[in-house]
Input
Amino acid sequence: MLLAGKVALITGSVRGTGAGIARVFAREGARVVLNQVHDEGDPQQVLEAIQAAGGAAICVKADLSDAAQVQTMVQQATAAFGPVDILVNNYAASLPRTGFLDSTWDAWQTQIDYTVKAAFLCCQAVLPGMQAQRWGRLISINTVGIHQPALTYHGYTAAKTAMLGFTRNLAVEVGPDNITVNIVSPGLTLTDEVRARLAPEEQERRAQHIPLRRIGTVEDTAHVALFLASELGSFVTGLYIPVCGGQVME
Output
């Protein structure tokens, strides 16, 4: 088991990609702290799936834009399992998509708060424990959209692009503490939400534009996150890894 004995906190992990990462990490021996931000997803279903497979998990509801709630979440994680070894910044705000002139700064601010500010608060909350034990993994789930600009994704893409600078600067600072900081960027992924939105024929059409001729799964993203979270990725830091079947080539 690649993560035996480790404690992993995964934000926004009660649905979609976050839930997939949680299941894979638990399968590999991590004690997993799930996070529900508002009322999204189904925490009980994810918990039961992990526990039925023999894993250990709890779920903590916390608004990631609120410093006090983030601190409380980390305290609850530590009380349950011990200091957090692995943080995965996964949550993304879901907002209506509009053209630039129809967008508002409030909508942009929400994207920034639940991407950059959330990562800032969560990293600050877990770093002291990681520095004390001289081991840690900070991973952010991003999007290949930062290299493929698309209409109506303005605030989302701006916030996600800011995470490149955030990640690289932090990687330089905490590297001497044996802490790595990286980004995993999936392309189009077959979450339940995407399956509901795209008819099978549209899925197939989109797959034909991907070199590997298929759309990604949550497990594809989770396995790259697993590599970075484990000792296999111990000499990888400050990196942005697209997981998109060749749709973007860095």
